[in-house]
C-alpha cells in the first residue's frame, strides 16, 4: 500500500514527455516507473523495519511483575511460608491447606499454592523474605509419576541448574506401598532440591495410603513444627484454634441462571458444551448400553458404553476415562434432615483471604443440595482436622472430648480414630447419627468436607473399532461395616443406575479422557502377554479389539496371550463370548483362565503363568514380548511380578537379584507395564 501511494506522482511526468520525445518509448516509461516504485517501496519498508526494534526497548527497561510470581504475592500479603501441593485426588491439597493454617500458631503466615499456577524458578528468590520456608506436599500418581498439576514443576526440576542455596524446604510425600514406585515423587523432590543447594529443615515424610495416611501425616506434622520453631527461633503462640477460611453469604433474591447446578468449571457448561473437554470442562456422554456381565454371585459386574460423538474426544487403547459421579440423594437428604437444613437454600462460601486464588471451596453460588450431591465427599471417613473443627459444636462434653481426642496426636487418640472412624468406615452421616449432640452449621460442614473426586476406569475398547464410543467395565462396591451399616461405592452404584438412551440426566455421565503410558507395542508383530483378572481385563478387551483390527488391515500380528481370572466359571466370567470369538478368529492365540473358587485349592493367574513358564520365557526372551499387568496392586500384581522373577531366574540361569534386575530393566524399556489400583 505504501509503495503504491508513492508510485502515482512518478507516473505523470514520464507519461507526458512520452508524447513529446520519441527517445522515450512506452516500455521505457513503464520500466522507469516500476524501478522508481520498487525503490520507493524498499526505502520505506526498510526504514520501517529499522524503526521497529526501538519500541520494545522502552518496554524492557522495567520488567513487568508476573502474575505467576508467588514471591510478589507473599510479599504483598505478608506470608513467609508457602506450601505447594502435587495433588490428583485432593488429599495433598487438603494437607497443604492444613499446614498453611497451622503457621499462624507460630506467628508465621502461610499460603497453600498450586505449582501449576506459579513460576517455580522463583524459588531461588524465596530468601528475600524473612523466616521463609517452602513446604511440598507431593503425591505420586500411577507408576511413580507426578500428578497432573505438578508435571511442569517436575519437568523444571529435571532441567534446572538454578542455585537454590538460600531456600529452606521440607517435603511430605503421599504414596501407597502396594505400588512398585512408592512415593517416587516425594523422594525425587526432596533429593533434587538438596542437589540444587537448598537446605532441608526437616526430614522427608512418607505417607502410606495402604496403611493410615492420615496418621502418617499427623505424626510427621507434630515433629515438623517443633523443627521449624527451632530453626527460626519462634514459639507456638497457643492452642490450635478454629479459624474459618470462608464466610457464608445466603442469596435470597438470586437469578437462578447464575447458580451452579453441578458444573465443574464454567457456569452452564453442561447446557452449552464446548470442546476441548478436560477435568475442568467434562463432556456429558450419553450411556448407550448398560448390561450386567456376570451370571450369578452377590456382586454386580457391568459393561457400559458412553457415546462421545461430536465431542472431538480422542483416545487410545490403554487410556483411562474419568467420570464425575453424584452422591446418593438419600444420604444427602438425611444430612439435611439431621441438621435441620433447607437444602435448597442458595449460598456462597467466599474466601476471607481476598488475595487467595481459590475464591470458593467449590463452584458458588450454589445450593446446599448441589454441594452435597456433586461437589463434596460425604461417604469417606472424615480426616482428623474435620473432627477437630466440628468438636466445638458438640453440646455433650463427652462427645466433644471424644472428637478432640481422636483429632489429637496422642497414641490413645490415634488408636480411637483408627478403630472408631477408619476401621468402622464411619462417614460424616454415621458420625452425626452416633453423636446426637453434634449438630454443626451446614455451611461450616461444607467448608470442611473434601471435594468429591472423579473416578478413573481403564477403557475397555479400541478407538480403531469404536471411535465414537468409550467402554467401561466395573464392579459395584457394596459392603457392610462393623456398625452394621451398608456402605455403597459412590461411582459404581451411580453408574449402575444409568438408564441407556433416556432423556434427561438419568443417562448422562460427565467425563473426560486421561492419557496413559499403557500402550500396545509400536510393531503389531511383537508378542503380548496380558495379565488381568476380574475387571483388570478391561484394557485388554481394547487391546485384543485393536489387534483384530490390525489383522483385518493385513498387518502381521504377533502372539496375543491373555491370562484372566475370576471366582467361578458359571458366576463371574466376564466377556466370555467375546473372548471365545477372538480365540476362534485366531487373534487371541492363547486364553488362560484361572477360576479361584471352582476347586478345593485356590488357583490364580500366577499359577497358570508358572504352569506355562517355558512358553512365557520363550516369548519374553526370544520374541521380545511386552508384558501387561492390570488389576489389584496389593496382592495380584506383586505375586505376578514374583512369578516373573522365578521364571527369569530358572530359564535365564540367573540369581534372584539378577532376575529382579532383568525384570526392572524390562520396565524401564517399556516392556513390562502396570495399570494397577489398590
From TrEMBL:
It comes from Oxyruncus cristatus (sharpbill). This is NADPH--hemoprotein reductase. Pfam families: FAD_binding_1 (PF00667), Flavodoxin_1 (PF00258), NAD_binding_1 (PF00175). The gene is Por. Its EC number is 1.6.2.4. Its cofactor is FAD; FMN. One of its GO terms (cellular component) is cytosol. Residues 280-521 form the FAD-binding FR-type domain. CDD domains: CYPOR (cd06204).
Amino acid at each position: 500500500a505504501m509503495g503504491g501511494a508513492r508510485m502515482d506522482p512518478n507516473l505523470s511526468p514520464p507519461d507526458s514527455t512520452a508524447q513529446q520525445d520519441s527517445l522515450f518509448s512506452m516500455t521505457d516509461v513503464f520500466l522507469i516507473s516500476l524501478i522508481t516504485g520498487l525503490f520507493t517501496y524498499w526505502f520505506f519498508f526498510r526504514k520501517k523495519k529499522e524503526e521497529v526494534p526501538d519500541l520494545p526497548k522502552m518496554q524492557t527497561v522495567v520488567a513487568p511483575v508476573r502474575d505467576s510470581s508467588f514471591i510478589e504475592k507473599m510479599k504483598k500479603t505478608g506470608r513467609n511460608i508457602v506450601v505447594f501441593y502435587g495433588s490428583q485426588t485432593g488429599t495433598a491439597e487438603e494437607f497443604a491447606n492444613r499446614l498453611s493454617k497451622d503457621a499462624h500458631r507460630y506467628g508465621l503466615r502461610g499460603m497453600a499454592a498450586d505449582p501449576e499456577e506459579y513460576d517455580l524458578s522463583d524459588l531461588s528468590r524465596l530468601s528475600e523474605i524473612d523466616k521463609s520456608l517452602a513446604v511440598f506436599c507431593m503425591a505420586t500418581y500411577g507408576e511413580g509419576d507426578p500428578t497432573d498439576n505438578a508435571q511442569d514443576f517436575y519437568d523444571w526440576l529435571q532441567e534446572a541448574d538454578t542455585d537454590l542455596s538460600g531456600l529452606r524446604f521440607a517435603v511430605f510425600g503421599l504414596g501407597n506401598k502396594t505400588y512398585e514406585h512408592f512415593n517416587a515423587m516425594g523422594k525425587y523432590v526432596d533429593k533434587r532440591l538438596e542437589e540444587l543447594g537448598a537446605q532441608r529443615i526437616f526430614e522427608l515424610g512418607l505417607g502410606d495410603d495402604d496403611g493410615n495416611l492420615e496418621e502418617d501425616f499427623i505424626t510427621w506434622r507434630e515433629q515438623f513444627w517443633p523443627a521449624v520453631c527451632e530453626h527460626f527461633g519462634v514459639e507456638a503462640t497457643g492452642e490450635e484454634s478454629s479459624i474459618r477460611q470462608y464466610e457464608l453469604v445466603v442469596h435470597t433474591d438470586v437469578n437462578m441462571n447464575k447458580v451452579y447446578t453441578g458444573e465443574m468449571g464454567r457456569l452452564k457448561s453442561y447446557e452449552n458444551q464446548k470442546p476441548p473437554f478436560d477435568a475442568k470442562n467434562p463432556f456429558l456422554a450419553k450411556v448407550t448400553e448398560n448390561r450386567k456381565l456376570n451370571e450369578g454371585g452377590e456382586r454386580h459386574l457391568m459393561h457400559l458404553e458412553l457415546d462421545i460423538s461430536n465431542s472431538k474426544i480422542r483416545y487410545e487403547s490403554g487410556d483411562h476415562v474419568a467420570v464425575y459421579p453424584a452422591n446418593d440423594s438419600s444420604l444427602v437428604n438425611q444430612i439435611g434432615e439431621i441438621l435441620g437444613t433447607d437444602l435448597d437454600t442458595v449460598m456462597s462460601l467466599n474466601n476471607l483471604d481476598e488475595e487467595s486464588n481459590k475464591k470458593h471451596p467449590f463452584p458458588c453460588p450454589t445450593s446446599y443440595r448441589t454441594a452435597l450431591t456433586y461437589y463434596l465427599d460425604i461417604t469417606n471417613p472424615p480426616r482428623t482436622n474435620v473432627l477437630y473443627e466440628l468438636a466445638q459444636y458438640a453440646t455433650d462434653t463427652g462427645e466433644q472430648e471424644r472428637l478432640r481426642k481422636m483429632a489429637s496426636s496422642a497414641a490413645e487418640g490415634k488408636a480411637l480414630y483408627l478403630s472408631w472412624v477408619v476401621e468402622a468406615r464411619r462417614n460424616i452421616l454415621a458420625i452425626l447419627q452416633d453423636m446426637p449432640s453434634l449438630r454443626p452449621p451446614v455451611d461450616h460442614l461444607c467448608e470442611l468436607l473434601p471435594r468429591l473426586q472423579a473416578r478413573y476406569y481403564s477403557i475397555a475398547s479400541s478407538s480403531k473399532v469404536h471411535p465414537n464410543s468409550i467402554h467401561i467395565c466395573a464392579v459395584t462396591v457394596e459392603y457392610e461395616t462393623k456398625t452394621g451399616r451398608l456402605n455403597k461405592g459412590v461411582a459404581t452404584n451411580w453408574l449402575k443406575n444409568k438408564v441407556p438412551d433416556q432423556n434427561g440426566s438419568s443417562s448422562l455421565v460427565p467425563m473426560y479422557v486421561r492419557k496413559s503410558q499403557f500402550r500396545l507395542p509400536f510393531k503389531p508383530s511383537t508378542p503380548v502377554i496380558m495379565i488381568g483378572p476380574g475387571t483388570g481385563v478391561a484394557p485388554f478387551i481394547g487391546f485384543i479389539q485393536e489387534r483384530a483390527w490390525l489383522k483385518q488391515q493385513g498387518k502381521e500380528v504377533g502372539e496375543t496371550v491373555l491370562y484372566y481370572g475370576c471366582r467361578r466359571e458359571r458366576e463371574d466370567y466376564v466377556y466370555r463370548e467375546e473372548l471365545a470369538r477372538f480365540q476362534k478368529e485366531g487373534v487371541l492365540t492363547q486364553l488362560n483362565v484361572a477360576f479361584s473358587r471352582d476347586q478345593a485349592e485356590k488357583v490364580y493367574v500366577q499359577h497358570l503363568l508358572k504352569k506355562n513358564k517355558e512358553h512365557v520365557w520363550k516369548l519374553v526372551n526370544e520374541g521380545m514380548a511386552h508384558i501387561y499387568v492390570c488389576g489389584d496392586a496389593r496382592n495380584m500384581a506383586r505375586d505376578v511380578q514374583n512369578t516373573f522373577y522365578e521364571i527369569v531366574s530358572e530359564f535365564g540361569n540367573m540369581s534372584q537379584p539378577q532376575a529382579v534386575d532383568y525384570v526392572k530393566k524390562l520396565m524401564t524399556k517399556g516392556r513390562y507395564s502396570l495399570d494397577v489400583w489398590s
